[in-house]
């Protein structure tokens, strides 16, 4: 049991060993997608343990929302780095990712080896409508923190229309939101303050180890030399692994293609897991044919049942691609799947570590500067609209079969929405209930 300290007394410094065990625990229990994981980190690190203040937490979060890649993973890396330097960031990020990677490899193998069994098919039938509700709930939860005024709501609506109706690429939407934030932060700074003007971490939770007034640690002070060093080391590591794959198997081999594709996915897509999925769908299904559209939706359903970052669905894409292409022959399908999943995960997450470890000091230097943080606030609002558009995207695939409405799927999704929004049901309980409903419907119709 953790001793409760007075709110005007900061907790004692946290050792790296203690942080290690926290990040390992988080890796195994962080269900609910990025919104749930961010909320879980906030509850534990800001409210209960008081390792970091809410303003600094939100400042880091908005930077991670700006970056391409999984924002929950990047937030874990950022906090780990801020508290325990580079090794703390690497430990936090690795432990946040590793449990979900191993578990999703196992689920991918079960899916491919036994997916035709009625029990597996029925389970997935019930989970997929729940995924649509979970994505909508994620938009709501992030929106309640980001859409603090009419200006932010307008940005979110404009982002939804831009991607869902006009079809603009997400990088263009992020750029537009950043420009709006940069301009609005100068003209109406009160509308673009990070997290809203009413937040006061000391009044709400008490003093934190890394509080609003805590001086920036020496390792977190910006240095162009440090930025260049980390960028070169990280970029060199990624290039070395890709060149090893290309020299061993050829540049046109599936593993080398995966390395290059998932590097682009990590570098060119913004807004975290929900925003990157349409890009992964386009490449994995339509361009390289590593998997089918149905398998992609099934992969997202499996991803929602595992802890860790939702973007770990790339491991499912890599696993299925390696398996279906029989990279090492028909007698080594499992090995091919594991290789594909490992390559996809490595090249997807490596840039996230580089972005944080290299750019974190620059972000720390902008704390308290509304003109610098306003673009991040506007981008956070835009991401809400994109997540809603993703729910629409998945709903089209889940609720319509051969041009007809699948009413049982609609009913499951509606019930899941009620459970999430009205009764605040946990993700795991919800998925278990929907999986059971899918099984019952499968046996009823079979």
Description of the molecule:
The chain has 446 residues and is mainly alpha-helical. The chain has 17 helices and two strands. Mean pLDDT is 84; it is low at 195-203. It has one domain. Strands 1-2 form a two-stranded antiparallel ribbon.
Number of strands: 2
Q: Name the quaternary structure.
A: single chain
Q: What is the CA-CA span between the terminal residues?
A: 50 Å
Strand residues, percent: under 5%
Keywords: Cell membrane, Membrane, Transmembrane, Transmembrane helix
Family: Belongs to the chromate ion transporter (CHR) (TC 2.A.51) family.
Transmembrane segments: 20-40, 90-114, 120-140, 152-182, 227-246, 258-281, 310-328, 334-363, 375-399, 428-444
GO molecular function: chromate transmembrane transporter activity
Summarize the structure.
This is Chromate efflux transporter. The protein is mainly alpha-helical and 446 residues long.
Task: Jot down its keywords.
mainly alpha; 74% helix; globular; 446 residues
């Amino acid at each position: 049991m953790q001793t409760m300290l007075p709110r005007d007394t900061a907790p004692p410094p946290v050792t790296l060993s203690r942080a290690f065990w926290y990040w390992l625990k988080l890796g195994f229990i962080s269900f609910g997608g990025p919104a749930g994981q961010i909320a879980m980190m906030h509850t534990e690190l800001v409210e209960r343990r008081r390792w970091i203040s809410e303003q600094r937490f939100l400042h880091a979060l908005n930077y991670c929302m700006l970056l391409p890649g999984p924002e929950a993973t990047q937030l874990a890396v950022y906090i780990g780095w801020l508290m325990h330097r580079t090794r703390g960031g690497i430990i936090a990020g690795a432990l946040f990712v590793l449990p979900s990677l191993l578990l999703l490899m196992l689920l991918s193998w079960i899916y491919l080896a036994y997916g035709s069994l009625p029990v597996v098919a029925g389970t997935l039938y019930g989970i997929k409508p729940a995924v649509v509700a979970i994505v909508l709930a994620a938009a709501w939860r992030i929106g309640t923190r980001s859409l603090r005024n009419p200006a932010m709501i307008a940005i979110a609506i404009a982002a939804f229309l831009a991607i869902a109706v006009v079809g603009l690429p997400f990088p263009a939407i992020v750029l537009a939101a950043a420009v709006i934030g940069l301009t609005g932060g100068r003209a109406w700074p009160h509308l673009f303050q990070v997290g809203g003007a009413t937040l006061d971490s000391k009044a709400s939770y008490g003093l934190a180890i890394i509080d609003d007034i805590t001086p920036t640690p020496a390792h977190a002070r910006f240095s162009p030399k440090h930025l260049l060093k980390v960028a070169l080391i990280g970029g060199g590591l990624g290039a070395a692994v890709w060149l090893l794959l290309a020299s061993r198997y050829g540049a046109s081999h599936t593993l080398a293609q995966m390395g290059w594709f998932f590097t682009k996915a990590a570098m060119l897509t913004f807004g975290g897991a929900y925003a990157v999925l349409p890009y992964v769908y386009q490449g994995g299904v339509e361009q390289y044919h590593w998997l089918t559209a149905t398998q992609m939706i099934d992969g997202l359903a499996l991803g929602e049942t595992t802890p860790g970052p939702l973007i770990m669905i790339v491991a499912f894409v890599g696993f299925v691609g390696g398996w279906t292409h029989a990279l090492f022959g028909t007698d080594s399908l499992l090995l091919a799947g594991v290789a594909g999943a490992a390559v996809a995960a490595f090249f997807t997450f490596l840039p996230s570590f580089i972005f944080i470890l290299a750019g974190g000091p620059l972000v720390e230097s902008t704390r308290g500067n509304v003109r610098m943080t306003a673009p991040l606030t506007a981008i956070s609002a835009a991401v809400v609209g994109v997540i809603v558009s993703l729910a629409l995207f998945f709903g089209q695939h889940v609720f319509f079969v051969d041009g007809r409405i699948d009413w049982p799927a609609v009913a499951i999704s509606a019930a899941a929405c009620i459970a999430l929004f009205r009764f605040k049901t946990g993700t795991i309980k919800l998925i278990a209930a929907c999986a059971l409903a899918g099984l019952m419907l499968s046996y009823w119709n079979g």
